[in-house]
Amino acid sequence: MEGKMILSSQLRIIGPVGVGKSSFINTAIRRNVTTVGHDLKSCTAEIVHAITPYPSDPTRRVVFVDTPGFDDINADESEILRRIAAYIARSLVSTSFHNSNK
Length: 102
Ligand SMILES: Nc1nc2c(ncn2[C@@H]2O[C@H](COP(=O)(O)OP(=O)(O)OP(=O)(O)O)[C@@H](O)[C@H]2O)c(=O)[nH]1
Ligand SMILES: [Mg+2]
Description:
Layout: E1 7-13, H1 21-29, E2 48-54, E3 57-66, H2 77-100
The protein binds guanosine-5'-triphosphate and magnesium ion (MG).
């Protein structure tokens, strides 16, 4: 693996509760990597990510990031936003660390 550079694109899937964010990721990645809801309550409670290679280019990969939905009457929206922002900040730090070690 030494000297081999893998380019990553991070796709953060963000939106209201129940619009199909997790379903979209499972369909795009062709695996059940994140749980789909089956009632009116919000389903995804934690931020999770799943990595898949580009089908046509092994030097690239896509990181899908599933996030808790907005507009949930039982959740604090600003807390969800704060967690997403913290996740993005952490992933930017780890990406620049990773790249600086190439
Ligand atoms: N008809 C239809 N239903 C869908 C579609 N995508 C998802 N669903 C259904 O919508 C419901 C919610 O889907 P999820 O993928 O869990 O939605 P989510 O946005 O991740 O929801 P939260 O994690 O609660 O924010 C499930 O019952 C899915 O089967 C779609 O394209 N069409
Ligand atoms: Mg979900």
